[in-house]
Amino acid sequence: MRISYLLMAVGLLVVAGVRALADDQATHWAFQPVKCAGIPKVEGTDQVRNPIDAFVLQTLQARGMCPAPEADGRTLIRRLSFDLIGLPPTPEELQTFLGDLRPDAYERLVDRLLDGPHYGERWGRHWLDLVRFGETRGSGILLRESSRPVTATRRPARGREAGKHLGWEDMDEYDDAPEKP
Fold it and tell me: What backbone phi and psi angles, to 5 degrees, belong to 118?
């Protein structure tokens, strides 16, 4: 008798939970159909270079704020270099960028840094962490630790692969391949 009441109570809770979930789905933003948002009209359209700028400027203006002044070339190359490759620009790279007066100089710098080997070396380490790549074969407690002779060639190879913009599937196939001594 008690079990039947318990099952009935559990059933009612499940039904109530399903109804509450259905109500949440009707109002929650994640369950709404995707709609194309119109680009907002903002004051100071000289600061809007693309549609995303209009959304950012609208939010800033709604909060009574104004955008920060545009960064100079030296600051731009340093920020971009540290963000993409984790290294500061060399003095030669700095002079080359500052001397480039073409309107697409920044886009060219982005392309050059993305195509360079340092980009893959920086971001390839995240893939190594994801696949739990380690430098040893054992834990050191129960198993005798031994260095992997292939490590010296595999880590730079992973960086080169990430620099070539290989897909996850291609990089995963490389990880499944047997190690060569």
Answer: -70, -30
Q: Which of 93, 83, 84, 78 is nearest to 113 (CA)?
A: 84
The 3-state DSSP class for residue 136 equals strand
Answer yes or no: do 142 and 124 share one domain: yes
**15 part of a folded domain:** yes
pLDDT tens digits, residue range 14-40?
A: 666 656 666 666 788 888 888 888 899
Residue ranges in 63-116 assigned as alpha helix (H) = 73-85, 91-99, 105-115
DSSP 147: B
Number of domains in the chain: 4
What pLDDT was estimated at residue 48?
Answer: 87
Are 63 and 88 in a shared domain?
no
Q: What angle do CA 43, 44, 47 make, to 5 degrees?
A: 135
Residue whose C-alpha is closest to residue 172's, from 137, 138, 128, 135: 128
* CA 146 distance to own-chain centroid: 34
